[in-house]
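INPUT
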Amino acid sequence: MAKKEVKKIVLAYSGGLDTSIILKWLKNEYGCEVVTFSADLGQGDELEPVREKAFKTGADKVYIDDLREEFVRDFVFPMFRANAIYEGSYLLGTSIARPLIAKRQMEIAQIEGCDAVSHGATGKGNDQVRFELAYYHFNPAITVVAPWREWKLNSRQALINYAKRNDIPIPITKKRPWSSDRNLLHISFEGGILEDTWLEPPENMYVLTKSPEKAPNKPQYIEIEFEKGNAVAVDGVRMSPAELLAHLNTIGGEHGIGRVDLLENRSVGMKSRGVYETPGGTILREAHMAVEQITMDREVMHLRDSLIPRYAEMIYNGYWFSPEREMMQCMIDDSQKTVNGVARLKLYKGHVRTVGRKSESDSLFNLDFATFEKDQVYNQADAEGFIKLNSLRLRIRSLMLANKK
Amino acid sequence: MAKKEVKKIVLAYSGGLDTSIILKWLKNEYGCEVVTFSADLGQGDELEPVREKAFKTGADKVYIDDLREEFVRDFVFPMFRANAIYEGSYLLGTSIARPLIAKRQMEIAQIEGCDAVSHGATGKGNDQVRFELAYYHFNPAITVVAPWREWKLNSRQALINYAKRNDIPIPITKKRPWSSDRNLLHISFEGGILEDTWLEPPENMYVLTKSPEKAPNKPQYIEIEFEKGNAVAVDGVRMSPAELLAHLNTIGGEHGIGRVDLLENRSVGMKSRGVYETPGGTILREAHMAVEQITMDREVMHLRDSLIPRYAEMIYNGYWFSPEREMMQCMIDDSQKTVNGVARLKLYKGHVRTVGRKSESDSLFNLDFATFEKDQVYNQADAEGFIKLNSLRLRIRSLMLANKK
Amino acid sequence: MAKKEVKKIVLAYSGGLDTSIILKWLKNEYGCEVVTFSADLGQGDELEPVREKAFKTGADKVYIDDLREEFVRDFVFPMFRANAIYEGSYLLGTSIARPLIAKRQMEIAQIEGCDAVSHGATGKGNDQVRFELAYYHFNPAITVVAPWREWKLNSRQALINYAKRNDIPIPITKKRPWSSDRNLLHISFEGGILEDTWLEPPENMYVLTKSPEKAPNKPQYIEIEFEKGNAVAVDGVRMSPAELLAHLNTIGGEHGIGRVDLLENRSVGMKSRGVYETPGGTILREAHMAVEQITMDREVMHLRDSLIPRYAEMIYNGYWFSPEREMMQCMIDDSQKTVNGVARLKLYKGHVRTVGRKSESDSLFNLDFATFEKDQVYNQADAEGFIKLNSLRLRIRSLMLANKK
Amino acid sequence: MAKKEVKKIVLAYSGGLDTSIILKWLKNEYGCEVVTFSADLGQGDELEPVREKAFKTGADKVYIDDLREEFVRDFVFPMFRANAIYEGSYLLGTSIARPLIAKRQMEIAQIEGCDAVSHGATGKGNDQVRFELAYYHFNPAITVVAPWREWKLNSRQALINYAKRNDIPIPITKKRPWSSDRNLLHISFEGGILEDTWLEPPENMYVLTKSPEKAPNKPQYIEIEFEKGNAVAVDGVRMSPAELLAHLNTIGGEHGIGRVDLLENRSVGMKSRGVYETPGGTILREAHMAVEQITMDREVMHLRDSLIPRYAEMIYNGYWFSPEREMMQCMIDDSQKTVNGVARLKLYKGHVRTVGRKSESDSLFNLDFATFEKDQVYNQADAEGFIKLNSLRLRIRSLMLANKK
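OUTPUT
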């Protein structure tokens, strides 16, 4: 493949060894100006030191942006309004972050007059797809440089040698035998020792959650309030989206909630094991479903539920910025107009369970039917006609089958 | 409504006060022969004493049948091959039992030459629908007598008075402030104090599970083996379907697993709170999904998952014996041909979590690609073309939108 | 069933024999005030004479409203934005009219302080369901009187006798051996001789369309322009929704377009033959699909198409005024933002066929890719990676299956 | 891209200029043995002369196989049991042929000990995907050579020059300004002048159908009989699948039936205009739907219909040999057990229309309900309970909404 021409590039930069090598490699191979961009999505690391690191490794300009509120408000919450879950288990913590990073990266590309963008995702994973689909959405003519698909640095040793040759400091901490990605919604682990799908992940891997065995011996009850499907308060205290999620992470982490071990299907066609900690998100989803139970119409719920596998697939596969996701979001958001109420949850040793739900404004349960005469709302005798007509096609079919014999 | 003519009727009879009153009421009102039928579905009660009770209350003939193996093998397992779940929470323990009771009841009706059947389900619930849709499937011309929709005994006191007048013994134990239904798959609770949807159910209500707080302080690991999507062994010991489910109930109950508190949508159109204990079923579903993770094709899984809300709805609404359920079962069963393998699970204080899965025969993960040259299976460079073409329609659309501005 | 108490009732009144008898019967049986309501939905009859007829038969007040524009704009067009079709053939001409009639009827009920409404639909058909579901939407406590389900006038002769006894004039024209319903969207025929499903309907039954054999020997070409999925002009002439549909009915009728003969499934559970003439609607749907072809994203289209059977079912079954239909409409309407363009159609002897489509603003076809370098939009080599990764899961599966042997 | 090593290759060979050049190019570039394979799928050309041509152009071995019966029986008919249609218009005539060609090609590869296969599909179209997904299904390690994605012969002139240099005879007939693909199910046209989506295709393009204007002035009636969803006889004469389809092509072509002009979405992400003639297939689909109308359960039909867009997409995108298509076929075939009956159709000037349908064994319409008492099957009064309970959730919601105000 002929090398593309690049004048100025924005690199999604974490400050770690890999993206530092990429930064230098871009300078070496493309001879272009490099703008680095680091997003604060709540990954828990201090990002400011990244600035100096980037300049030292050759960056021409450095962007560091706090995107936490935008992340939760415009990405996490819309997705949670849908109860999205991938393959029955994964709450899409990494999938939902990539489009936002790409969006901001493309804004910077425009501000800075860049003709290319780059990321550090490998050629076997989902993240390259998520980044690049979003890049192309914002500028279909952008040049994308994906070093892992281009370079020959295909082993850890080759990378380290490259770093040494290029004066990139190599962290002295031993590399952990898995890779991970963290933001306000979750932390994920994959690769390394996790590739033995039969082996339980080691306890020392977990970051956001206590072991259930070490969680408090007393359950904790919390109440979460929702307005139009969005969580707005915990135990009566209103919080911004990012504050609320961070707060639930703390509580959920304390109780060991939200660990998932999944062998999942990647968009590129292979299976891959992912282990996740999503303490706040797990609580949030349970609470949201509880409030839906009391406020959402049955047919709305069943129709919506049948579409969630497809919606989650869109997000997992990188189609956040797509007309089909937006179209489905219209439907989902319409379904949330009445999702106003409070869920009561019990947290205990790795598990969260609904124990109560109420809605003053939108309850569809046990309304005061005072305006009705007795039996006007529900007359038991009506059930006979209901059953008779619902069974009519089955009875006719049974007759037909009997006649055939 | 004119009273139907009935000569001989089969009554689904539990031996409790309500169906005893119905038995007598049928004799009094219809002047017909009454055959009672009691099914052992693993509800945990000794059924033999029911025989004497039935005769004493006026039964002309009594059937008591052990249907446990048929229940698990032909009803529970096919449903679990689909991972069926209603409204995200309910494992359909009562829904799946009704069609089997109705099936056997209709067989007895034919053996005994009955022209009618009767059941004790009320006119506001789902069970009347499930019973009667199944009855009509087997005989579209059968006469159905649903006493709760016919009689005037609309209060507890009226029932007790009726019982007293008719020499039906009234249990001295105090009635619990909820109603329940139990079988090998679950026990359900509804009504009474549960109708306050904000109130946590009392601990003394639970029957099958220990409180998580009182469950063992040490986690337990178990392994469940599947063949064609059906569980066949636990920790290496092969068991029949009913034995296996009973065994998992014991283990799961000990660890407080499978409690669910749900405000659900009934088929007759109202919301209703159901609290469930499904210890073995909860474990079984988790294990089944784990084995599917390693053996099931991605598109098969996603397509299947999109249909499960509809499949679960069919079962919940009483359409087990319907061409649409059977047609969907064909598809589900085809998807299970490769679901052969073992799941490893961790049980601890109310929660079950997958920690490993393997399949010797059908793993789609990390196969030995020895027959391939390096990079022939997966060449990272392929990802570029994959992303480029997957984004093509999005890039064209972005161009169009940009041109519009 | 105990007779309900009714003080004042609004009757959906056509002026025909049946609803005249109902008008008198309501007076006789319920002793209530009767307000009649006749809607002009473009059924082609002069409605003004109905006024006198109603008063003569005993009406206390008469409403006659021209709802044609509202009908097409707010009911027909939203449905056509979805390409809704029931069981592959029926364009829902009657189904979509009933909710509007019910809506206006309920408005009148409120204006007039009525406690009840009534309609002339029989107890075996779909229309009773459509009317009553809509009534209850607007007032869940309204009393509904459905004479055909209540009275004993179960034969034509009984009706005629009743009319004679009550001085209701009996039309001298012979009753046609089928029943029909007409509005701006279609005319339907059912019952009578049509119940022989093997017999071709007689040529003299058709009202809106010439026989294809008698249609012009020369094809006609027309162009229809759409904005946001709604037809706004024919052959360059802008028209209001009702005018446009009427115009297409004239053209389509001349060419014998839009006859459909369908054995369909009613919502009450039986099959029923319906024969339809929908000349304008048939043209409109073809044109709309043509403009979608050039302006709609692939995934949007495929997702939408998978939901249309469900959407059409909602309308057919009477759930126009339901949260699930409204929620789906949000999604459909979002998909129509870009459906701007022109379709060119050929009309000839019973058939309409697209022969061209264009969109100046929203075409996704063959854009001028001038801003791109050669091969940047589409590089044939990309297809290899696309195919390789799309086939990855299939190749892995084939390996697994081969290993099993 | 490094050239792959190839020893012996099977080429899907039509005998035309393009695949002749490919044959020679494979010899020149890969220096490998070339086996040609030509399939008779009813494309209407004499294939025997292809043998000599292949040898003259350098083939080492030649296969010519008549696959017509297999094509219709095992590919076309299963697809028609589903009423599959792509984007509302395209009957998938080319899509369904590719997997069969690939299947036979891979069988030959195994017989002949080939390590590679090749085809003449371009790098911008669907067919490369369909061929190669099927190749990989049969042998995930096969080497695929796709000359159009590899060579530099990117213009017509380059091809002709190559042919001249290599002594490949160039047809003297002028190339038509479109490309086409024909088999027993259809002929397709695309490219060239058709890329102006506003222009009507010229009348002289059509091959299988008379112009409707020149079709007979008298309609023709035909009857088609189905067993388990497969057509088995026309006008009482039983025929094999391929005979029957050929017969319907003749009749349909005479009446100008089955022309479709579609701007469709390709699997590689662009829109493309396709014009099709599918005379027999169009008749077959209409007839099949007519027999389903009288024999298929409502819920089975509606569920099936909601899945057809997805099923058609699978076939269009080349996933015939995939577990998801097979799984869906299980469901579809189960739905066809009762599809036994006869359709009566009217053919006239470009259009086919159902005018009758019957089924002696499986009709669900108007059965003789002799075993029932009057009103036992359908009691009009039942409709009230049916409507009341179906509206219950809507009434409760209306109350809630009213309370909110």
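end of record. Chain C has three domains: 8-67+93-166, 179-358, 369-403.
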